[in-house]
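INTERNAL AUDIT FORM
Audit reference: QA-55
Scope: verify that the stored structure record matches its stored sequence.
Auditor: D.O.
Record contents follow.
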Amino acid sequence: MIEAKGHTGQVTFDGEYVTITRKGFVARMSVGKGEKRIHVSQITAVQWKPPGALVNGFIQFTLPGGTERRSGFGSQTSSATTDENSVVVLKKQVPEFEKLRAAVEEAIAGQHRPAASSSLADELAKLQQLADSGTLSAQEYEAAKARVLGT
């Protein structure tokens, strides 16, 4: 489990769910106290704005059907304070948030990778079955077999 404590909330990631937890006065004055759990399959993007010399940064999770508001110049972080899918980040909190961001982005990418292909022997056996049943002609079988073998 990865945890990152930000200025306007805490974000945890257990490999399956991103949980944003808000407590205390800052939470009450911004989005509100409570907890929001988001399954990684529902996250379409992670926006990361690292803090600068004079301004705080933020991490924001984009969800399908969500309405992202384009902030004006210099007001991105202040807009993030009122967004329920964002957490404001201070400069000293950057390392833990970068680790969290990398883990979430890897999990998102994993959701979109094709399933591991079967073994070479399995592929050849399937082709042989198709040829034996007459679904593939001898020429089609040889061409498909050459493609599977990479020859």
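Auditor finding: record pair retrieved intact. The mean pLDDT is 83.
Action required: none
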